[in-house]
Design goal:
The complex is a heterodimer of chains A (about 120) and B (about 110). Chain A has about 120 residues and is mainly beta. Chain A is built from no helices and twelve strands. Helix content of chain B is about 0%, strand content about 55%. By secondary structure, chain B is mainly beta. In chain B, the strands form two sheets. In chain B, strands 2, 4, 5, 6, 9, 10 and 11 form a seven-stranded mixed sheet that branches. In chain B, about 35% of the residues are buried. Chain B has no helices and eleven strands. The chains are: A mainly beta (about 120), B mainly beta (about 110). At the A-B interface, strand 6, strand 10 and strand 11 of A face strand 4, strand 5 and strand 10 of B.
């Protein structure tokens, strides 16, 4: 079974500053990794995903993440945040070698607060 | 996209509820998640080509159906107060590929 730990429940950052949201996972098999964003009263939108290949993954809205197998991490970064980035961010993992029947395992989320 | 109905629902403890989802056209897989307040979504189950393909740690009173016309249902019997949550439907083409989420149904059990 896999698990996901998002180390920060809340991250305040000033507008136009860089941000990193941390995610660590635990799994005994190969994994697929995802970052989703959830705006208030909305569903989840996929920001980016790592399935295989290059460990640096670029997503939408200027976000990127780096897969580090030795540290079992998949941290999300953005070089300059905007007020519209205020939202809840979820890291998720699925079993890469399996058929996906166990669904996605999500972390508890990190609330990104952009301060003007 | 993926659409869910209704958006909000209030039910009494002990009642039964049916939530509906319309998948993205052509997607053959639908998954359902429960998101309690302040928590990440938890996997309930997945349907692939109208058969249950996998299940999370949820009791049998949570059941589902997937229809050939891109629609699906989540049924919950004997509602409990702890069932109050946002229920999310996600569809995909394949069981372990990118999933697209709906806006969710907010269920309140009183």
């Amino acid at each position: 079974a896999q698990s996901v730990t998002q180390l920060d429940s809340q991250v305040p950052v000033f507008e136009e500053a860089p941000v990193e949201l941390r995610c660590n996972y635990s799994s005994s098999v190969s994994v697929y990794l995802f970052w989703y964003v959830q705006y208030p009263n909305q569903g989840l939108q996929l920001l980016l995903k790592y399935l295989s290949g290059s460990t640096l993954v670029k997503g939408i809205n200027g976000f990127e993440a780096e897969f580090n197998k030795s540290q079992t991490s998949f941290h999300l970064r953005k070089p300059s945040v905007h007020i519209s980035d205020t939202a809840e961010y979820f890291c998720a993992v699925s079993e890469g070698s399996g058929g996906g029947a166990d669904g996605l395992t999500f972390g508890k989320g990190t609330h990104l607060i952009i301060q003007p | 996209g993926v659409t869910q109905s209704p958006t909000h629902l209030i039910k009494t403890r002990g009642q039964q509820v049916t939530l509906r989802c319309s998948s993205q056209s052509g997607h053959n897989t639908v998954s359902w998640y429960q998101q309690a307040l302040g928590q990440g979504p938890q996997f309930i189950f997945q349907y692939y080509r109208e058969e249950e393909n996998g299940r999370g740690n949820f009791p049998p009173r949570f059941s589902g159906l997937q229809f050939p016309n891109d629609s699906s249902e989540l049924n919950v019997n004997a509602l409990e107060l702890d069932d109050s949550a946002l229920y999310l439907c996600a569809s995909s083409f394949g069981t372990n590929t990118e999933a697209f989420f709906g806006q969710g149904t907010r269920l309140t059990v009183v």
